[in-house]
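Margin note from the TA: students keep mixing up input and output lines. Inputs are the sequences; the output is the structure of the whole complex. Example:
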Amino acid sequence: MGKYRVVHYINQFFGGIGGEDKAGLLPQVRSGKAGPGIALQNYLGEEFEIVATIVCGDNYFAENTVKATSEILNMIKEYKPDIFFAGPAFNAGRYGIACGAICETVQETFKIPAVMGVYPGSPAADMYARVLTLAATADSARGMEEAIKRMVYIGLKLFRNESLADPEVDNYIPRGIRKNILLPDIGAKRAVEMLVKKLKGESFITEYPMPVFDRVPPAHPIIDLSQAVIGLTGCGGIVPKGNPDRVEASSATKYGTYSIAGIDNLTGDQFESAHGGYDTTYANEDPDRVLPVDVLREMEKEGKIKKLHDIFYSTVGNGTSVDNARKYGQEIAQKFKDSAVNAVIVTST
Amino acid sequence: MKEIERLDIPVVHVATVVPISQTVGANRIVPAVAIPHPLGNPRLSKDEEYNLRKKIVEKCLKALSTHIDTQTVFTD
C-alpha cells in the first residue's frame, strides 16, 4: 500500500527564497519536502510522505487573498493530499493569516484534516481558533521543533478520527467549545474549593473563564464645552415611531440613523423604543428618559454647549453579538468623526 | 464606545449596571437611574424628573471635560 499523501504550505522565508524583499513571491509548488517540512516528515514517520510543498510570499497572499487562495487550492488539488499542514507561523501576522485562510479552505473543500501551528497571541489565533484546530506554538522559530511535534500529534489524531483531549493537554488553542462532563464532586463543592484557594492566594483553574475585553486609552477631554458639538447614541432601541428600519428587538443586525434637526424634545408621539429586553413603558412615554435630547437642546440654547449633533444613532443591545456591535461602533465612530462631533454621550438601558 | 474613543473622541457611558460598563472597558462612566429609564424617573413630577436628567447630563459634560488616566466613575 502507498503512503498517505501530505501537502505542506510555507512562506517565502521558510521556503529559503528570501525575506521581505521576496514577500511578493507568487505561489509555487515544489515536489517533496522543504524547510520545516524536513522536520515535519521526520515526525510524521514512514506511513506519510510530503509529496509537495507550496511556497508563497506573505505580501502576495495578503494583497490578493481571494486570488491566491484559489491558485493555491488548484496546486494542492493536483497532489490529492490525505492531510494538509501549514506553517508553523509562530507570531507572524501575515503568514499566520495566510496559513489560516488556506487551512480553512482546504478543510472545507477536500474534507481532510488541515493543521497549522501558531502562537496563541497572534491575530491568526483569534481569527481561526473556532474553525481550525491550531497547534499552540512559541512566538518565534526558536520553538520550531516543539511546534512541529505538536502539529503532527494533532494532525495524526484528527487523521485517525481520535478525539482530542483538553486544549492544555493536547497543546492546541481553545476552540470555544463547551462539553458536558461528569465530575465526582458537585458544583457547590468545587466552587467552595476554588473560593478557599482564592482566599488563600493559591492558584486554581476556573471552570468558566471570563471573556477578555480589549481596552482603549481614555480620549483627551473637551477643552471648551461652549465650543463642543455633542453627539448622542445608545443601545436603548430609541427609533422613530413605527420603527421604519425594523431594528430588531433582540440580536440586532443593524443600527438606525435618525435626524433630530429642529426637535427640542423626544416625545412618545414621534419616537419609541424597539428594545425587546426591558419594559419599554417608560421609554415610550418619554424617550428623553433614554436619550436626553430635551436637556441637551436647552444647554445648546443657553450656550453651555455649542451644538447637539442633529443625528443620533441607535441600536438594540439585547443579545447583539460583540462582532456586530463592534462593526456598528466603527461605522458610527467614523460618522461622528466626519461630522466633526467633539464628544459623545452613550446611554445604555 | 471604544470604537469612538479609538478615534480620540471622548465618550461618556451612562449605564445603570456600572460593573458591566467597567468590564466592557468604558473609560468615563456616569451611573444611571434604572434600566428602563436610565435618565428619568417616572415616579417624580415632570419638573423634578427634568432636573434629575439635567443633573446626569451635567455630570456627563463634566466627565467629558475632565482629563483621566484610567477608568473613572463620575458619581458627584
